[in-house]
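stage 2 :: seqdesign
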């Protein structure tokens, strides 16, 4: 037994060919035989002539997943920009400041015409983070570029795109 897996028998090879002829998927055959999908693929590749599996359903499912992901990213982008806009509205809105302090640990508050400078800095950083993330999501789904983000990254890492 090489690598801890039982050897593939001729009976299994024949059964894979039969199940393939019946139109079963690779994973369905693997489950029926108690073998891995990789083993079934290996048996199919070694068959004369090699056996292949119809992939239209896989392609359709992949396309649907991609479309769902794009729709979710688009909604997230809208949500991020709305949140950034809400924060921008706080930059010059009246702001309540408060603290506890003194010997009696008194609560004190007052309303300012605008938030203090440090609060404005924090708001501005938050707006930038939200807007940057929204822009990255927009870039991810761009269709006017020749390569996807992952392809561009791979080209960069391998030096093929330089």
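stage 2 :: out
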């Amino acid at each position: 037994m090489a690598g801890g897996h039982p050897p593939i028998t001729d009976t299994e090879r024949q059964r894979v060919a039969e199940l393939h002829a019946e139109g079963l998927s690779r994973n369905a055959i693997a489950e029926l035989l108690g073998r891995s999908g990789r083993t079934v693929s290996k048996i199919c590749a070694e068959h004369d002539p090699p056996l292949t599996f119809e992939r239209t359903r896989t392609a359709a499912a992949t396309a649907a997943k991609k479309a769902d992901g794009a729709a979710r990213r688009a909604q997230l982008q809208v949500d991020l920009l709305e949140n950034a806009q809400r924060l921008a509205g706080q930059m010059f809105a009246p702001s309540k400041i408060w603290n506890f302090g003194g010997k009696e640990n008194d609560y004190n508050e007052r309303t300012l015409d605008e938030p203090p400078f440090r609060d404005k800095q924090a708001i501005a950083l938050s707006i930038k983070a939200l807007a940057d993330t929204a822009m990255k999501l927009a870039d991810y789904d761009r269709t006017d570029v020749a390569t996807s983000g992952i392809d561009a990254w791979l080209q960069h890492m391998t030096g093929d795109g330089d």
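stage 3 :: structure notes
- The chain has two domains: 7-46, 65-158.
- DSSP finds six helices and two strands in the chain.
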